[in-house]
Amino acid sequence: MEVPILKQGEFLIAMFQAALSDADLENLRRGLLQQVVRFRSRGVIVDVTAMDVMDSFASRTLREIAHMIRLRGAETVIVGIQPEVAFAMVQLGLTLEGVSTALDLEEGLAYLIEKSKIAD
Amino acid sequence: MAKRESSPKDSGARNNQAPELASSEAPSELLRELVAHLRQNRTQLREEWVGRISETRLLTAMTKEEIFAEATSVYDSYVEALETETFEALQAYARNLSERIIPRGVETHEVVGIVLLLRDVLARSLFAKYQTDFKKLNRILDAYEPAANRIANTVAVGFVQERERVIRQQQEAIRELSTPVLQVRERLLILPIIGVIDPQRARQLTEQLLRGIRTNRAKVVVIDITGVAAMDVTVANHLVQTVEASRLLGATVIVTGLSPEIAQTLVTIGVDLGKMNTVGDLQGGIEQAERLLGYKVMAVAEAR
């Protein structure tokens, strides 16, 4: 299942669906990187509210996406991690180091807007 | 086993639940005779038993009168269980007795000890009574021993079960009153932790906190561990995990009230506290949280 990438002003929003294969994640990574360049976006929000499982591949891909997008000069924020998922992740040692996180889409947007204000 | 040699006929049958005895007397008849004997000598045997109890220094938490009263009830229940060969009444009594004596600090070995003492006292009286008739003594003991062992078993199991029930109940009570997640300002939660943290409670704490972050849309959480006396590796790691999990939900955690002892332990055992944001006391933690959230608290009038 493709992950839809929405453009919202200066930001891109990627909405995860419940079950994603590894190939879907690869596609998402490629898509996001291309579009960040194309739209000259300043920030990316990855919404994982629908995910009730986060395996090591998914979490590594998220981290890589965030780091690659930073190299492109944009910020990434992961939003909507469920409490149970968060707890399972830290127990597995998947802590998304160096990646910003926020409670939900609204918070994520507020965070990015704040960030770009500081940058201006 | 002298018994087995003396009556080889019933050795094969003993595997059965109710051994058929070679003689004309059925086991139930023997038991009836036994019960009659115990009833007849009730006063004397009971006193002997109580004497043995205080001699061996069991039940030191109870007074002599109490021991005597309980001993009487136990004795009667014991004889009744032997007579009717039903253990429900005895089981209920054992549970009831345990309920009364557990809060007074009576230990498992004491309860098992007194029941075994009673068994021995009664067995001695049987030896004395039938010492002239060895065969009869054997048959009586064949009837008595399984029943007596079962009684001892019933009482001990009843006691342990009651104890476990009390422990479970207390654990639940502690769990229920253990962990409030409180909102002190918009988007600021505090989680005061008091007492001993075991892995189960730590897990529950984390779950509650994460849920609280979600429902209150918290951005900053102050975890206050002033009331935690000691911390081991497991709990410390759990705390680190909680901090990380909270961050995944977009909340910053400030840990306050680390005592010097805990700080020393954590450094000694090498827990990675680099990711943790710590402040000396709860007040400082809340002040820092307010700064993070952009609050500024000031006095509007001079305090009197």
CATH architecture of the largest domain in chain B: Orthogonal Bundle
Round the mean pLDDT of chain A to the nearest integer and report it: 89
Instruction: Give the strand order of the largest sheet of chain B, numbering strands 1, 2, ... along the chain.
Output: 1-2-3-4-5
Apparent shape of chain B? rod-shaped
Strand content of chain B: 5-15%
Termini separation of chain A (Å)?
Answer: 37 Å
| Intertermini distance of chain B | 90 Å
Q: What is the fold named in CATH at topology level of chain A?
A: Transcription Regulator spoIIAA
Largest interface: A-B, 19 and 18 residues
CATH superfamily of chain A: STAS domain
Short description:
Chain A has four helices and five strands. Chain A has 120 residues and is an alpha/beta fold.
What can you see in these coordinates?
The complex is a heterodimer of chains A (120) and B (304). Chain A has 120 residues and is an alpha/beta fold. Chain A has one domain: STAS domain (Transcription Regulator spoIIAA). Chain A is 48% helix and 18% strand. Chain A contains 4 helices and 5 strands; from the N terminus they run ββαβαβαβα. Chain A has a 5-stranded mixed sheet, with helices on both faces. In chain A, α1 packs parallel to α2. The radius of gyration of chain A is 13 Å and the shape is globular. The model of chain A has no long low-confidence stretch (mean pLDDT 89). With 304 residues, chain B is α/β, with parallel strands linked by helices. Chain B folds into 2 domains: 172 residues, Globin-like, CATH 1.10.490.70; 112 residues, STAS domain (Transcription Regulator spoIIAA). In chain B, 62% of the residues lie in helices and 9% in strands. Chain B has 11 helices and 5 strands, in the order αααααααββαβαβαβα. In chain B, strands 1-2-3-4-5 form a 5-stranded mixed sheet, sandwiched between helices. In chain B, β2, α8 and β3 form a beta-alpha-beta unit. In chain B, α3 crosses α4, α3 packs across α6 and α5 crosses α7. The N terminus of chain B is likely disordered. The chains are: A alpha/beta (120), B alpha/beta (304). At the A-B interface, α3 and α4 of A face α8 and α9 of B.
